[in-house]
Amino acid sequence: MRPVSPVNDDVVRLVGIQDTPLSVDEVLKSLDDAGSGGLVLFVGRVRDHDSGKGVTGLAYSAHPTALDRLRDVCARVAEEYDVTGLAAVHRVGDLAIGDLAVVVATTAAHRGSSFDASRALIDTLKAEVPIWKHQLFTDGTEEWVGAP
Fold first, then answer.
1. Cβ atoms < 10 Å from Cβ of 102
2. Could you tell me the fold of the domain covering 5-145?
3. Which of 51, 82, 100, 128 has the fewest CB atoms within 10 Å, i.e. the most exposed one?
4. For every one of its 148 residues, what pLDDT tens digit does the chain have, with 9 covering 90 and above?
5. HSE-up of 78 (CA within 13 Å, CB side)?
6. CB under 8 Å to 14, separation ≥6 — which residues?
7. How far, in whole angstroms, is CA 59 from its chain's centroid?
């Protein structure tokens, strides 16, 4: 996977899929500007349970088109919502409990637009970007989530 890199766009500032730990600071830095009165940040972490089962760890896999799809999602959200900045990064590879799996953030002149855009960004990312989660459970079973 290519590392996260800044995007040459006034609104979409950072988009990436990477196999190294995610940085909230990098996301926040990419969205730093004087015109933003509100910044909404969502951090998705690996939890120790799912559907009533204990989770020991997981791995994310991405389709070769995932980064392009993530860029498309970011561009659509930027067009649809009144935001001044937007960033989205997702992790792939083996992750442990507590690791950051996804970080999305938006900035806007006012908080309402940023809250709405951030929810749309994470929800659309999860629905449309071909990234799949392979969960390992404490009972020895496993499950693929989001796989076609």
1. 20
2. Aldehyde Oxidoreductase; domain 3 (3.90.1170)
3. 51
4. 444 545 547 899 999 999 999 999 999 999 999 989 999 999 999 999 998 999 999 999 999 999 999 999 999 999 999 999 999 999 999 999 999 999 999 999 999 999 999 999 999 999 999 999 999 999 999 999 877 7
5. 21
6. 4, 5, 6, 7, 26, 27, 30, 31, 87, 88, 89
7. 15
